[in-house]
Amino acid sequence: MLPFKTLIKIDKSLKLPVYQQIANCLIGLIQEGILKPGLFLPGSRLLALQLELHRKTVIAAYEELISQDWLVAVPRKGVMVAANLPVIRPRSFRKTVSAYDGEAAFSFHTIPTVAIPAKPVFTHTPLVVNDGFPDARLAPLGAWVRECRSVIESPRYFKLLMYGSPTGNEALRREMQTYLGNTRGLSITADHVMITRGAQMAIYLAAAMIIKKDDYIIVGSPNYFFADLCFEQLGARLLHVPVDEEGIDVDAIEQLCASKKIKLLYLITHHHHPTTVTLSAARRMKLLAIIRKYNLPVIEDDYDYDFHYSSAPILPLASADHGGNVIYIGSFTKSLGLSIRIGFMIAPANFIAGAASLRRLMDLGGDNLSEQALANLLADGTIERHLKKSNKVYHERRDLLCDLLQSRLGDAVQFTVPTGGMAIWLRFSRKISLKKLSEKARAMGLQITSGEQYHYGTTSQNAIRFGFASLNNKEIAEVVGILEKLVR
Amino acid sequence: MLPFKTLIKIDKSLKLPVYQQIANCLIGLIQEGILKPGLFLPGSRLLALQLELHRKTVIAAYEELISQDWLVAVPRKGVMVAANLPVIRPRSFRKTVSAYDGEAAFSFHTIPTVAIPAKPVFTHTPLVVNDGFPDARLAPLGAWVRECRSVIESPRYFKLLMYGSPTGNEALRREMQTYLGNTRGLSITADHVMITRGAQMAIYLAAAMIIKKDDYIIVGSPNYFFADLCFEQLGARLLHVPVDEEGIDVDAIEQLCASKKIKLLYLITHHHHPTTVTLSAARRMKLLAIIRKYNLPVIEDDYDYDFHYSSAPILPLASADHGGNVIYIGSFTKSLGLSIRIGFMIAPANFIAGAASLRRLMDLGGDNLSEQALANLLADGTIERHLKKSNKVYHERRDLLCDLLQSRLGDAVQFTVPTGGMAIWLRFSRKISLKKLSEKARAMGLQITSGEQYHYGTTSQNAIRFGFASLNNKEIAEVVGILEKLVR
After folding, report:
1. CB B295: neighbour CB atoms within 10 A?
2. Do A391 and A368 sit in the same domain of this protein?
3. Which of A263, B208, B259, B385 is least surrounded by Cβ atoms within 10 Å, i.e. has the fewest?
4. Residues B290, B167: one domain?
5. Residue A220: its pLDDT value, please?
6. Residue A89 pLDDT more than 90?
7. Are B226 and A102 inside 8 Å of each other by CB?
């Protein structure tokens, strides 16, 4: 008889019932060819004795395996490994490693990526300068949870918990019509709205709907790295157009349009990522004329529109006459905090319908509960109040940081005060190595990037985005204090 | 002077401040070429008179536009449209339609789709037979909201609200190790886990990582339609292999592997969609040998594993020795309710890392707050208790439905009692038109599909999936009552 005592491993600390542990072990032994088809297993009394278990436990395991067709009960002879199972030559007596332990046995694509730390190291770095994230301490998360509760408790929302739609929650799409009309002068209906998983999904979807392999598309230089990576992944050929103080170079765009078929233009009209510049009024007008002349499809990524300090934000291209060419993208992630990822895409209704079919293949649809909660917060004015409050706070933080950078770091850095958004584009003197600065900062309890990701596909400007929104006044002063020591 | 009274439309019922409404209108007029570069606008006093507004409001609008560079203040002469703006030939005096009103001006891809109703019509149909959805009335949503609150209120979770990772919440990935070990005998670590937006995102990601255009892949016939559509969208050539009472035909798979390079096999081992059959023990063993022999990459979609009534579920292929070839996919959507979309993918660590880079381009990452809440519910046993309870309830509902179908519909229908899951594969007599049945049912307050989507890419069997889990005993009886009237 086989050494079942050794072959069958029982761990009574596991939640899995012992009879199922026995059954699983026996299946493993059958699959590895150690227990061959037609083999009779020891009687339940004998096996129970060997394993020091109650006989009923072994019987339960055998019954389980009989019902799953691994074993067959033969009258008056006992329990046999099913004869119809394929014969396997045993390869090792008892493998202890998991099939997942090595590398994948098959080949797969390499995905374009940038070197940003996968996860921040918090243990040693209480202070974090991020890319321009909102302050979760200000986000109306309490109100959001309250709305989630009201959704699950109210019978009128019950159906929401059952079904979702790839275009997103209906109530939220209707609220978007009012919200975008009031804040951005956009004239749309719910049919022009798709609710997405943050702005990033909207970028991916819109681009995937338009780009074919080897298509030419225009992006800024520099550009939001996750947009560039996304377009490269979709097989596009990227034409980089300079971004200066007035935003993307519109004349260069026109020259490219005149010389080749351009399938897409991606641009960030407010607080361009990474440089934070805003596209000037004159360039907007020129660009609208180009868009109409060439029927140029545009992704207008306006992720930062709601945060503006020096004056009201400039209306997006989407609210002017673009001849049905602009796909407008934005996000609530900046107002609700990063953990709640709700963004949107505005486009002609037939494009939204097509994109919905693609989105369904990617994740079926959004999270109806969260989306309804957001719709309620838009309807009752919570989001508007929060935006007012946080704009005020971020405005102060921007001004404090700019003051401190100027007075404490002097000519080690250069920057233009951004009109809005959550970050400053901080250019360091060429004498300073950002890589070394970043390493030394970490030792002093400050996590700050070396900025490589911002220069993806372009020449380094020795600059980083310095997110000020998530740091309070005390934290801003501490961070600048550390930098001051490091740049001297 | 231009008729500003007509050109500038003020709506005092809007939340947008009046001065911004004026500013927006003026921008529109400039962009349309009605107000030309170099044109002087009326003085603020005069315009205020015309518009019947306070002069301060007009001044505020002018100041806003000066700060945005649309207007220029010329000392002693007044306010002028900026001379550096491009000259536009006006095309219409005042367009009233939105640029989004027509169709998209550019072309875009056609996405493969199936004819399932985009959104169920609830108003007239109180009863809905769905595809096999859980009952949101049973889902532990109260506990879930409670955990969300504890996450936002606890300082130790604060960082979660700031950062996410494309592989998902760390605590949840660690909980998955225990959960999948206990329930499925899977031997993995957190590095083998990616948390996704439901199982669908895991299918899309895994397939997109492997498939190149025109690759051959094997799927069941019939197959889960959203998987087929996803593979087609990614450019694969689908080879359909029959699914019978024992699951997918493994000999046919081997023949295909021997004759051409197969890049992927997609299969549903438990409660196959749509037919609900479970892959037999003998075929599993044969299949594992084929997988190892041909190094055949496999997506094992085990979306329904947690729901099993007749015996314990069969261990997945993923927990046997597959030589690092099986990508294992599952979901919590069936336990938490459809509105909370959390799924997972298990694969070798290098594949997970690659897939994370792709996922980051699609939506940056998951919802850290929801995922932490789920991790807490797994850790405190809530999910386990809920699964026990709902398995009991669904077991009863399955039995009740099967009894009623047999006794009331007789030979109008045929079905095999499924060992688990949330649906019955109900084959109707060829004499019954499901299209007509579906239409007539709706008039009687019952929404039931005509089933076209289940026969995508294969021959119709005149069958539908009858989801029983979301209907209570009373509702099941009502539905069968309506069907009884209709099939007679």
Report:
1. 14
2. no
3. B259
4. yes
5. 96
6. no
7. no
How far is Cα A261 from Cα A80, in angstroms, rounded to an integer? 70
How far is Cα A268 from Cα A329, in angstroms, rounded to an integer?
10
Least-confidence region, from A125-134, A157-166, A277-286? A157-166
Determine, for residues B118 and A295 on separate chains, whether the beta-carbon distance falls below 8 Å. no
Q: Which of A138, A137, A162 is nearest to A151 (CA)?
A: A162
**Helix or strand or coil: residue B62?**
helix
The answer to whether residue A317 sits within a structural domain is yes
The two three-digit tokens of residue A119, written as one number = 């996860």
Q: Do A161 and B136 touch (CB under 8 A)?
A: yes
Are B162 and B297 in a shared domain? yes
Q: Which of B351, B349, B303, B348 is nearest to B322 (CA)?
A: B348
Closest C-alpha to A442, from A135, A126, A115, A131: A126
Q: Do A108 and B209 touch (CB under 8 A)?
A: yes
pLDDT at B16 over 60: yes
CB contact under 8 A, B338 and A162: yes
Q: Is residue A152 part of a domain?
A: yes
Spatial distance between the Cα atoms of B241 and B225, rounded to a whole number of angstroms: 14
| Mutual angle of helices B281-294 and A18-31, in 10-degree steps | 50
For range B185-211, the mean pLDDT: 95
In this structure, are A353 and A260 located in the same domain?
A: yes
Q: Is the dihedral of CA B214, B220, B225, B230 positive or negative?
A: negative
Domain that holds residue B391: 127-133+385-487
**Continuous segment of H or E residues that includes residue A127:** strand A127-128
A166 to chain B: closest CA residue:
B118
Question: With 0-12 CB in 10 A as exposed, 13-18 as middle and 19+ as buried, what is A417?
Answer: middle
Same domain, B305 and B187: yes
Q: Is residue B176 part of a domain?
A: yes
Q: A414 and A371, same structural domain?
A: no
Question: In the prediction, which pLDDT does B459 show?
Answer: 73
Residues B224-245 pLDDT 10s: 999 999 999 999 999 999 999 9
Q: What is the pLDDT of residue B90?
A: 58
**pLDDT the model gives residue B118:** 45
Measured distance CA(A36)–CA(A58) in Å, rounded = 19
Q: Which of B44, B62, B81 is a domain's end point?
A: B81
Chain A residues inside the 8 Å CB shell of B142: 149, 152
DSSP at A452: G
Chain B CA closest to residue A298: B106
Distance CA B476, CA B126 (A): 13
Domain count, chain B: 3
The pLDDT assigned to A161 comes to: 80
User: Are B298 and B291 spatial neighbours (Cβ–Cβ below 8 Å)?
Assistant: yes
Do residues A283 and A422 share a domain?
no
Q: What is the ipTM of this complex?
A: 0.89
Mutate to test the interface with B, among A27, A161, A193, A251 (most CBs of B within 10 A): A161
pLDDT in tens, A115-161: 775 455 555 457 999 999 999 889 999 999 999 999 999 888 877 88
Record the pTM: 0.89
pLDDT surpassing 80 at residue A376: yes
- Label residue A31 by pLDDT band (50, 70, 90): confident
Output the domain CATH number for residue B469.
Answer: 3.90.1150.10
Cα–Cα distances in Å, from B212 out to A412, B188, B432?
49, 28, 42
Domain co-membership, A176 together with A315 = yes
Residue B113 in any domain: the answer is no
Q: Mean pLDDT throughout B255-266?
A: 97
pLDDT tens-digit readout, B134-192: 998 899 999 999 999 999 998 888 778 877 789 999 999 999 998 998 888 888 999 99
Buried b (16+ CB within 10 A) or exposed e, A292-330: bebebbbbbbbbbbbbbbebbbbbbbbbbbbbbbbbbbb
Mean pLDDT, residues A297-313: 90
